[in-house]
Amino acid sequence: MLTAGDDYPLHQRSEPIAFAGTDRNFYDRYFFQGQSPDGRLVFAAALGVYPHLDILDAAFSVLAEGVQRSVFASRILRHERMATHVGPIAVEVRLPLRELAVRVAETDGIGAELVMTGLHPPIEEPRFLRRLGARTLMDVTRMTQNVRWSGHVTLDGRTVDIEGFRGTRDRSWGVRPIGAADPQPLAPGSVPQFFWLWAPLVFEGLSLFAHTNDDAEGEPWNRSAVLVDHATGRETRLRDPSFALALAPGTRRAAACTLAARLPDGTALEARLVPEPPFLMSGLGYGHPTRGHGLFQGELSVATERVEVATIDPAIPLHAHVQAPVAAELRREGQPPLAGRGVLEQLVIGPHRPSGLAELFDLA
After folding, report:
1. Model pLDDT for residues 36-65, shown as the tens digit of each residue
2. Which domain holds residue 128?
3. Domain-located, residue 20
4. pTM exceeds 0.85
5. Do you find a cis peptide bond into 188, omega within 30 degrees of 0?
6. CB 150 within 8 A of CB 163
């Protein structure tokens, strides 16, 4: 099964590019996020390729003035993985690892012409490998990069210049649940559990990336914190990172979060995060009941959605996955504090003893 991708020297096995191993849940995905310097306008985009489902889908979403508006698009891939466009949404790699473009033809009043430029080379996060018994839940590689944005977003005929916006992009690929749910549940049954915090932060001349995946007891199965110098690209792996999370009452969302770690020489470091009204990841298809990643929508399908964020119920599982824009302060011994911004992504399902959560979706 030859496709256009086979003309590029990208093969990793003695088969055409169309075949990505044997797991039907293999995916290959772009994610982009940006925000204004004051955090009042947030946008994000995502595009996913699912080779064994033969589907490509994408979404673009903007949060402004308390309203989150999204455009969703899906089509049959026809195994051409290099054709990163669907309906009104397209992603273009202009300079690998450095510059990419996102375009959204105006749809229901929403459009965009965006170019991201890396503030530093991407970092490679630790490989995410998680099994439930003998079944693989996740086996993922991800690279992450803080970026500056240029271009514009269009909202109902109003053009918003995004020069000066900062944000984050990631590229991930591997295996995780996509498309229709597995009809045969794991035996013996257990309460689903997933605890995820991800904080890409931008300061003057410096980026901080921190994340944790915890089990039900609060023990990390994947945790990392890295400082990156923008001028040199030098990465400094931090020692003993830990998160102190305060949940807002009646939710599973952070009211405050502090990251503590040490530099290699033992110097203490602390980042204090103040979350702001969240961006709903369902606006990009994450956990969406009808526009979820890899769901078959037909030959070509385009849809839009509008959500008044203040009216949503944070107790509804659909709204559990959020990225909260954050104001951040970085403190290091012997140096003045740095002010910055970023996001705190949160997805908390099932028990997490340090947070006082004992059931599938009980609330703080």
Report:
1. 999 999 999 999 999 999 999 999 999 999
2. 25-178+190-355
3. no
4. yes
5. yes
6. yes
Q: Quick one: which of 230, 212, 232 has its CA closest to 222?
A: 212
Query: Tens digit of pLDDT for each residue in 339-359?
Result: 999 999 999 999 999 999 999
- Taking the C-alpha atoms of residue 115 and residue 147, their distance in angstroms, rounded to an integer, is 10
Total number of domains in the chain: 1
CA distance 201 to 210: 8
What CATH number did the domain enclosing 142 receive?
Answer: 2.40.370.10
For residue 244, give Cα distances in angstroms to 197, 257, 273. Answer: 11, 6, 10
The dihedral over CA atoms of 80, 82, 87, 89, expressed in degrees to the nearest 10, equals 160
Residues 6+ apart with CB under 8 A from 22: none
Tokens of 285: 């298809």
Half-sphere exposure of 282 (CA within 13 A, CB side): 19
Model confidence pLDDT, tens digit, residues 63-95: 999 999 999 999 999 999 999 999 999 999 999
SS3 category, 6: helix
The answer to whether residue 10 sits within a structural domain is no
d(CA 49, CA 30): 9
Under 8 Å between Cβ of 315 and 251: yes
Within a domain: 2? no
The token pair that represents 312 in the structure block: 């949503």
Instruction: Give residue-wise pLDDT tens across range 15-39.
Output: 999 999 999 999 999 999 999 999 9
Residue 360 lies inside a defined structural domain of this protein: no
pLDDT digits (tens, 9 = 90+) for 234-264: 999 999 999 999 999 999 999 999 999 999 9
pLDDT above 70: percentage of residues in the chain: 100
CA 355 to chain centre: 23
Q: Mapped to the 3 state alphabet, what secondary structure does 211-234 carry? A: EEEECCCCCEEEEEEEEEECCCCC
